[in-house]
């Protein structure tokens, strides 16, 4: 059996990769564990030097890595280069802050000494998706390795070129041999890796069904999980919003990665006073965008695969069949490749696929609310709770609603939702649990160990 990388712009096979059998997997994990036993005893300053080195390598190789992503999953090259630069920024961030984050904390008690220390816990298995094939991996691996853990990657089957390039990058940057390893296995081989005695914890970024499956096995083994799952982020546009800014943010928040992002602007909820202006401006802006070869200067490339494209098209057709209006796109273009045009649906309501399901592609969904209360109610009418955004000129009101009303792991006022190494990232409800990035993400896979010394 093999894993295959297929270029979605023309459906040509790029490479196939032999699957690691059970024995191969066991040996790789065992070696990773041996590396971990040495790595955990290195000085933090050594691990921080490795971060510096890998950040430089990423910057040097951004075009090379961006090209692999364009070929394997269709990401426009300019966005791929930006993704690699963001990975380097993440390394810089932990380089600058890990010392402070991992510094033992003295707590004043009646004892001679009471300390909180942060210790590694072992090998972390990262089960990762194809949509940000470098960023997702770095955001789990860098903080984990910096704490002193080892990392084992099970990347999406279709991006093994990216996975192997990342493995090599860690080695080239001076990380110990085997401290970061890629397993070439499909999703249905993950269960036995979770059960492997050397794996201490699992982080999965992907769909909600995959998250549930991993959590079930990990629960049986009593191993910790962090789950970053699907989303259907609502963008709520209030009566007093700056419509031009709201439209720009919605476009930026949905178009990235050809709409295949967990935190994309998936439900645009506008109060009825602004509905016409918003819809018209959105359509005009989308009409100017360019779809094409991801190696050219384009706004969107192909989707990841023909199957993914067909699924999105089916969601669009089913939404139209129950009353949604098609304003733009919605037709599969002639020619080879998994291309799907920027598509806009309006008159979308609960009960329609475009409202109830996560659409993982370049589809803009406009929902009209009666008033601001109704807009919030519609925003929360989702099983997901990853990101959300609110647009209003009243910043105090926006902040209050962001804090207390919208059910999500992050809420942005007057901007589109984005991840940032300095800020925690994660969801609630069916979007998962746990946090990545920032101080909070770094501690997810640390043993927060209490030390008490009595004189
Ligand atoms: P996916 O099918 O769930 O795949 C993600 C990873 O899980 C892949 O490595 C996949 O391996 C593996 N996998 C699939 N089923 C599994 C199972 N039953 N047990 C163990 N592993 C399994 O998701 P995707 O289609 O690649 O990505 C799209 C989804 O990810 C969307 O729902 C999106 O919103 C979500 N996502 C969330 C975040 C976040 O931070 N919250 C970020 C990005 C994406 P194979 O490739 O071998 O199947």
Description:
The protein is an alpha/beta fold and 455 residues long. The protein has helices at residues 22-39, 44-60, 62-73, 77-102, 135-147, 160-172, 190-195, 208-221, 243-255, 275-287, 306-321, 353-356, 372-380, 395-404, 438-443, and strands spanning 2-7, 12-18, 105-106, 113-120, 123-127, 150-154, 180-182, 199-205, 224-228, 233-237, 265-271, 325-328, 343-346, 363-369, 384-385, 387-391, 410-413, 428-429, 432-433, 446-453. The strands form five sheets. The chain has a seven-stranded mixed β-sheet, sandwiched between helices. A six-stranded mixed β-sheet has the order 7-6-5-8-9-19, with helices on both faces. Strands 3-4-20 form a three-stranded antiparallel β-sheet, with no helix packed on it. The chain is globular. The protein binds NADP nicotinamide-adenine-dinucleotide phosphate (NAP). Residues 127-131, 154-157, 186-187, 190, 205-207, 210, 213-214, 228-231, 262, 358, 360, 386, 427, 431 line the site of NADP nicotinamide-adenine-dinucleotide phosphate.
